[in-house]
């Protein structure tokens, strides 16, 4: 990627970032407001996918950068036996 290239952030990544801000607000009794995703990466981990998201939030008119790490676990993935 070259400087000036535009990166389109997928909606599901924005949704994860919004969710992370809501969770942070609940746990820390704050009222940060999600503004945008700056960048993100994903990697496979033993039981799912981990997303590292750099995002911007508003806190009383001041913008801050945060990093959220969100793991989406693979739940109940089992082989179905076939009748022989």
UniProtKB/TrEMBL annotation:
InterPro entries, per this entry? Cystatin_dom, Cystatin_sf
Keyword presence, Nucleus: no
**Gene3D superfamilies referenced in this protein's UniProt entry, alphabetically:** 3.10.450.10
Pfam families xrefs: SQAPI
Keyword annotations for this protein, in alphabetical order, are: Protease inhibitor, Thiol protease inhibitor
Q: Name one GO molecular function term.
A: cysteine-type endopeptidase inhibitor activity
Source organism, top-level taxon: Eukaryota
Q: Where is the Cystatin domain?
A: 11-73
- What protein name applies here? Cystatin domain-containing protein
Organism of this sequence: Buddleja alternifolia
